[in-house]
Structure prediction request, 179 residues.
Amino acid sequence: MNIDTARLKMVPLSSEDVEDIFQLHSEEEVARYNTIGIPENTEVTRKVLEPLLATVKEEERTAFSWTIRLKEEGEFIGEIGFSLAPARYKLATIHYSILPKFWGKGYATEAVKALLKFCFEGLGLHRIEAGCAIENLASIRVLEKVGMRQEGRKRKVLPLKDGWSDNFEFAILKEDYLI
Prediction:
């Protein structure tokens, strides 16, 4: 299932996207706040993506992932997705990464808004969560722009390249989204 916005096309992740995802996560600026670090090669990236690729055809899937592409040009600019909690919670945790050359153009905000719409309106979820390193000011701004609220701080929970980092916890409820 594709998700389209005014400027973006979000296409379900496939094995054909491994090279693009490898390039994304090989960017030093992207890897700075990414807990998986910089992959050694595309095969490492493929292994990390295997669980996501394997769930694409399952009926009861718990993980969803898309590439983010410019609608007109089809150019790859990033990835986005979420993991579902057990069904009774009606909860998902989102993640996203954008290539640095596309930062500051509102693409992350646009993609996250579209993902929230899919989760709340398409899947009938109750709550969407996200976390980010406390130093990741751009991601904090994105989460705030889409209406998520900071709910807490976990101390030294993220194993980043530069050492352990605190993590801000954000969330939005369906009733907040509808306002």
